[in-house]
Structure formats: C-alpha cells, structure tokens
Amino acid sequence: MWFKNLQIYRLPAKWDMSAERLEEQLAKKPFHPCGSQDMESRGWLSPLNNDVLVHAVGDQWLVSLGFEHRLLPSAVVKQEADERAEELAEQQGYKLGRKQMKELREQITQELLPRAFTRRRRMFAWIDPVNGWLVVDAASQSKAEDMLEQLRHTLDSFPLTLLRTELSPMSAMADWLAGGEAPTGFTIDQDCELRSVSEDKAAVRYVRHPLEGDEVKGHLEAGKLPTRLALTFDDRVSFVLTEKLEIKRLDFLDVVRDQIDGEKEDAEALFNAEFALMTGELAHLLPAVVQALGGEIAVAAGDQKPLEAASSQPEAKALADDPPF
C-alpha cells in the first residue's frame, strides 16, 4: 500500500467525524456494477476487499472509491448506425434526416450497452482526522475531483478547503534553483522542467541531469520558471513537486521499505504495516513541504471555500491510471 501521487487537501484539525460514523455514511453509497443500461457506476469499496469501508490503522483512515465503465466507443455506434441508415435508405428511397439519425444512434446504444465490456478501477484516499489532511492518490486534480465529488454526495458534512501556502511552489522552486540550495531537510535531484511565462510557452526539461550549473540559472534569468522539480526529503522519500502543489512520482526509498519484515505471510498485516509506515513518513513530509513554501495561510472558518473549489486549478496531465480492482 504505497501511494504514487498526492493531491493534497485540508480538513479542520480534530475534524468532528469518527471512523464509525464515516463507515455508516459510506455504506449508504456502496459500489454496484453497472446495470444493463448504465454507462458508468461508482461507489465505495473496502480497501482490503472485506466488509469494512473505512480501514483504520491507529488514527489514520483509508477509503477506496470504485468505478466501472462500459466500453462502448462512439465510433462503433456510428459505424453501426451508418450501415443501418444505408439499408433503410435503400428500402425507403431517401436518406434519414438528422433527427432520425440521432434516434437511430440512441437505439443502437441501448442495444449494444448490455453486451459492452466493462473496465473497473479504484482510487484511494488517506484521511488524517487528527492533523487535518485528506490526500488522494491520483495523478491529476481532475481525477481527484471524482473522489471529492463522491465524498460530497455521501457525507452529511465535508468541510474541505484548499491547501494554501505563503509562497507559490513555482517561485519557491525558482529561488532554490537560483541559489543552488534546497530548503532544510531537502535535496535537489536531477529532474526539472522550466517553462516560459511568455506567450510562446517555451519549455526545457532536464532528466537525470545536474541542475546546479549556469545553464539552469540562464534559463531562469531568461524568464523561464520551474513547473516541476525532483526533490528528496530526509534521504527517505523522493518525489516531484509541481507548480500546483502536487506531489508526483512519490517513492519511498529502501531505508524506509526495509523497515517492513519481508517475511510477513499475512496479507492484511503486510498491508497495515505498509500503510502505517507510509502515513508516518507523509506526516513528516507534508508539514516540511508547507514550511519550505513559507508556511500555511490560515483560513478563517467563515472564509472556507466549498468543496467545488478543490478543482478550480487547471487540470494536470495524468501520469498514471488508477489501479484496477
């Protein structure tokens, strides 16, 4: 149980929710497979594939949202509709009009849906009710919004806000690269992307390349700003920080993974050990990232943004699909 990408959101510290109450509310919208005429179905799944929807290890919770999609490409419907339209035109002596073609495509969709293949996937979210973190393992904010939307529709109250810091990640990363030094506890690795703020959007990407030379500083002086920067925290966790305060390509290094007994035969015990170790490392990493970005901007209770605000930033290109069931 290791997250690969982090979309980070804020819950109030000491959120007024227990694991038992959360379990009861998630149970109202469990996952069910698509019906014969459904294009998509979504609902809550057990993270461990048992009857428990909120998997708790200590004070840390894990929830899982399941999706099922019917695979019926529009090109398939169009091809079948065009073939039937030709046959009808020969029989009737005239071509079908726009309205008739629309009705024909709808009819074919209804006929083909029950026979279409389905694809299942699942998404995980870590909830830390003590420190107020909600973290979705998703490659983009638009994907994470699927989880947030379902939580909004499921829970009686969901006081989620955006994580906001004094410094923007872009300006902070530019300072680190210009000075050739990462903030305390971090080291700069060898992957980076810089993008021009001008209309041409010129971009330079470094992969496994030293970043401390004059070349990178020259790009900064020319007006390019970092949109991605690879970092390592405390020699334990490596990741890529983006300009949208996303954490991508998260990797727990061997010094962390070696703490788990590889001889564990109980799958649940291994799952729990990995989850506890992961959340323990992230509980140190996230505050350190916030501190490196100048600290968190406090949001007054009356100024809390609604859940929909979590998807207000531009969509990031997905780097990985959510795992199947």
TrEMBL record:
Residues 305-325 are annotated as: Disordered. It comes from the Bacteria. Its main location: cytoplasm. Keywords: Cytoplasm, DNA recombination. The keyword Cytoplasm applies. It is found in: Cytoplasm, Nucleoid. InterPro entries: RdgC (IPR007476). The keyword Repeat does not apply. Pfam families: RdgC (PF04381). GO terms for molecular function: double-stranded DNA binding. One of its GO terms (biological process) is DNA recombination. GO terms for cellular component: bacterial nucleoid; cytoplasm. May be involved in recombination. Belongs to the RdgC family. This is Recombination-associated protein RdgC. It comes from Thauera propionica.
